[in-house]
Amino acid sequence: MNNRHPRNENEPSFTQSAARQLLMLAAGAVVALVALMWLLQALASLVGSSTTAANAVDVQNNSITIAISTEPPQLNSTLATDASSGMILGHVMEGLLRMSMDDQLEPGIAERWEVTETQAKFWLRDNAKWSDGVAVTAHDFIFAWKTALKPETASEYAFLLYPIKNARAVNEGTIGLDQLGVYAPDDLTLIIDLERPVAFFDKMVTFQTYFPLREDFYLQTAGRYGADAQEMLYTGPFVITSWVHGASLLLERNPYYWDQAQINLSTINVGYITADATARLNFFKDQRIAETVLLAENLQEALKQRWHIRREQDGTLFFLEFNHRPSRSTRNYHLRRAIQLVVDMEELVYKVTKLPGYVPGESLFPAWLPGVEGKFREEFPAPKLQLNHQQALEHLALAKQELGLQDIPPLALLAGDSAVADIQSEWLQAVLKTKLGLEIKIDKQIFKQRLAKMTSGDFDMVLAGWGPDYDDPLTFGDLFASWNLNNRGRYNNPDMDQLVSVAQNSVDAATRMQAFSDIQQLAFDDIVLLPMYERGVTYVIHPKLKNVKRRVIGADVDFTRAYIDPEGV
Known about the structure:
The chain is of the alpha+beta class. It folds into two domains: about 65-290 and about 540-565, Periplasmic binding protein-like II (D-Maltodextrin-Binding Protein, domain 2), CATH 3.40.190; about 315-535, Dipeptide-binding Protein, Domain 3 (Dipeptide-binding Protein, domain 3, Roll), CATH 3.10.105. The protein contains 17 helices and 20 strands. Strands 12, 13, 14, 15, 16, 17 and 18 form a seven-stranded mixed sheet that branches.
């Protein structure tokens, strides 16, 4: 917003007539009044996107107002990679299957399905429609998957489609799209030939990369699909009727959604987009929003207000990712090892970050993931790290020797612009300076720009996070495969690729879990990353808003089945 007003370079002289002076004063007053009105409008747009933004829970209009921390960078489901986009997509789009309120697979656009070792088959319901009333067909899924796999699309999540026969070869451009193993014998039947047996394929189709796209509409947008509200069609419970970039989104009930009986809210007003946790707390306190996450600095205020505080684990692992590209100093094993030996994640979590529900990171695999019979980390404990300052200095000396450097040049630490990222990046900067004498330059970026820099490799280290896409350890286990475009540091190790291949191709649970255990050990031994913490969520919800779902898998927070209880306390 440009509030700069041009300065009048031609000041009137004192010889002007009184009348002219009065006219000039009057004109100036009008200009000033118009400017004031414009400024007030601009400020209003910052405070909220609509009159409903002041009502956290509007019983009369069956509407709620919420805040999100970041603008969704991308609502094209073939390209979206982040949680913010995933949260919005989870409210406006639906795929073949979905996760129920008790975290079980249930029918979505497909009313039934079966998966064998060689093939998956889905039968679509005949009352599933797009938001313009046109029927959803099997061809819409085929078009979406082919679009994601086209090399020119450059979808970072295209690899999630690799269980489909020939999908990887299509994505790599070695064969044509017509050879992808998907068929639609009729509008309501979708047949998928599998590249290999995949015991959890039906779980994968809940993810956004498997959402449908309608070819005629997609092509009409001429490359702008998902960029604005009017550049999308929807299959989910809600549609986006307004999107003011950087300020707000308005989600309204989709009259063509097939499962109307399960949807209660008429409107979800995303009235605020701000990373400022204190601002969000004040919005909640003033009853402008219906839900907010609590951080360490505002937990005491929540206790003082005697709000009902809730806690959940959200399944996300945050970590320090190294850039392994040949041009970067962090490609050197001994430099990474030196850093590993001095960074105390317990100190980070308990003394620095001090966020309720957070636990120190120990593994690439969070503690909640399933194993053979119980939890994976109970059956295959994470390697234990012993911090050792003297050994760290020895590895640092070896790093300088191998890199042929007198001193390690300043390392670029890419980080977000949130208060938590500020605290963590500054702590890491201080630790590495004090313990190893390393100079760390913090590159603080807004979310969208940080993602762009991660993709281009413009960092030495990055504060990153990964949430699960489906309910299987492979959702973390393949993250550092050489072919995975979400492997932002471009770690490349044939041993890692081989272990990932075993985990992908075996249907024996014990064999797969042993492969994950070996991946866990290799990630530790080769210092692919430093696990920092597993995130917990502490939050408050308006007492009249019920049935809000926090999810490990899928859109979080999920308001699709929420309702307003006028008598709620």
